[in-house]
Write the structure tokens for this entry.
Amino acid sequence: MSDPVLWELVCVRCAARYPGLEVRTLCGCGGTLDVVHALERLKGVVTAQTFDDRLGARQGVYRSGVWRFRELILPLDDASIVTKPEGNTNLYEAPRVASYVGLDALWLKHEGENPTGSFKDRGMTCGISMARRLGMERVAVASTGNTSASAASYAAQAGMEAIVFVPEGKIAYGKLSQALAYGARTLQIDGDFDAAMALVQQICAAEGIYLLNSINPFRIEGQKAIGFEVLQDMGWQVPDWIVLPGGNLGNNAALSKGMGELLELGIIDRLPRIAVVQAAGANPLYRAWVSGEPMSPVKAETLATAIKIGDPVSFDKSMRGLRACGGVVCEVSDQAIMDAKAQVDASGIGAEPASCATVAGIRQLVQAGVIPAEARVCGVLTGHLLKDPDTVVSYHRGSLDGIASTWANAPISVGSGIESALLGMRRG
Ligand SMILES: *Cc1c(COP(=O)(O)O)cnc(C)c1O
Ligand SMILES: [Zn+2]
């Protein structure tokens, strides 16, 4: 049979405890749940070397950039684990982008290089494996696109039925194509992501379907591996800052939780500071952060559809993590996001709009003197360039509403002859 259950679910608000295998996404009090591991028994047993020894595994679950850190993710038995494998993404040194943001050096962890093109795969392998462990046959998500692509793919691999709820007409084409192609039942709702999120929670509760949004605490466990892998990539030298975009806020909550656990185990000796970047039109965390007031939902509007979320489910976890690591929150305009994206793309790396909020945010924080030029900074690029081809082409054609195409590289039509082709090549 399976390994003993070595984790519990603990409410973030009231500290109520639930058994590790209970199918439950929220506490009775309405708070979100943490997976709490029995870390004590890992002290001195699991070290950086444990994880380094698994690098280069040719087969089995340790090929995964998530399951390589299994003891800290979820100590599941091999038979439950559904992996592609995911992770093992590049950490690029990006001098051109560094000079754009005003840093001496900058590292970009490209999570768009995951199997379905976003970091969601790291959470999804964990969520789907848990679904298998629990014997679930149907899974569901609400999504701005990437979660649906990832859930659809992993469910197909696991032989489960996936049901995805997306806001009609509001998700990028690359992502919608994936959900359809991987065979998910795709329900387009007349409403935004926040409405889809509320709906999917009701439907999962009523129908006994396993919910795979990041409100599911096991998703968060898998996503911690972004931070673990960054550290492993950097030889376990803690960067000064890790910067990432914030939408539903699961990813930054995962990052801070994972770093706290590494610190507790003595694998690192200090925490990196975390900066969360929101789009100015979808900024409930930023507002709460500057006002000190409780979060109030906003009506979200931004070109960066992956972070177009006005009522984030992981707000409590996110705040807790930011306080623990001396974190900061900033907001950036869509213009700043698209300018940063043009720079990331033209450097040959490339990423989808929401990912480039990271770079726009770093630039703002450097200009404001929050991040010094000599700091060691790692930015997380969350999704692949090809996720949202329409926004890219419109930007380069100069036809994005309300956005100046600062670094447009428009296609040039040259007919069919050599003369006009040569003219096109030389045109300024
Ligand atoms: C999901 C997603 C985000 C936002 O992450 P949260 O955990 O919801 O804050 C950012 N960028 C991309 C590309 C995403 O897919
Ligand atoms: Zn509670």
